[in-house]
Amino acid sequence: MADTWVIVGLGNPGPRYEATRHNIGQMVVDELAARRSEAFRAHKANARVAETWLRPGGAKLVLAKPNSFMNVSGGPAAGLARFYDVAPERVVVVHDELDIPYDTVKLKTGGGHGGHNGVRDVAKALGTPEFPRVRVGIGRPVGRQDPADWVLDPFGATERQTLPILIGDAADAVEMLIEEGLVAAQQRFHAPRA
To answer: Are strands 105-109 and 60-66 parallel, antiparallel or unpaired?
Structure first.
């Protein structure tokens, strides 16, 4: 399938984690599905998927939410890449990023995992770190809170006011990455806000 992309939203399964910072990748994939009125269904690659199109006549999108926990996201991501015959450069991983300020979206292809165990596991399972990433900034905790606890907390009241905008921006970034390429998406989303 020449123009198929797999978009994997990283997160943890179950209601306990749904609204946590670590699950923003899945929130973004939910937004992409909602924009197209698509529902998720079970897939044998241990994920829930929604198959759709970027736009009529455009690229096919396989929106995916692994059923596994974050640290073992690679199996579902690699299984979907094999099932849909998609090369790693067409597997877009959407994930939370501690080292980017809240309300910021950054894109890159390849590089290290920055201590993100979900990204690390996807790179290991795909056999390469050379896959595009949409990194959604959640910022670091203020004070002495352990970052491992921070990512598993729900967004704060102030963050929740702008969370829909952040999710929308990240979904826009995924669409632009696929439609116009990495550089164009970086130029738009890495520029300071007016």
So the answer is: unpaired
Whether residue 55 has pLDDT greater than 50: yes
In contact, 190 and 173? CB cutoff 8 Å: no
**How do residues 19-34 score in pLDDT, each as one tens digit?**
999 999 999 999 999 9
Q: What Å distances lie between residue 92 and 30, 130, 180, CA to CA? A: 14, 10, 14
Q: Is 117 annotated as contributing to ligand binding?
A: yes
69 is in an annotated binding site: yes
Mean per-residue pLDDT over the chain, rounded = 94
Active site residue 22: yes
For the chain, what is the domain count? 1
Catalytic residue among 22, 43, 95, 116: 22
Q: What local confidence, expressed as pLDDT, does residue 1 receive? A: 47
Other Cβ atoms within 10 Å of 137 Cβ, number? 19
**Model pTM?**
0.95
Question: Which range of residues forms the domain containing residue 22?
Answer: 4-190
Q: Return d(Cα 34, Cα 97) in angstroms, integer.
A: 23
Residues in the chain: 194
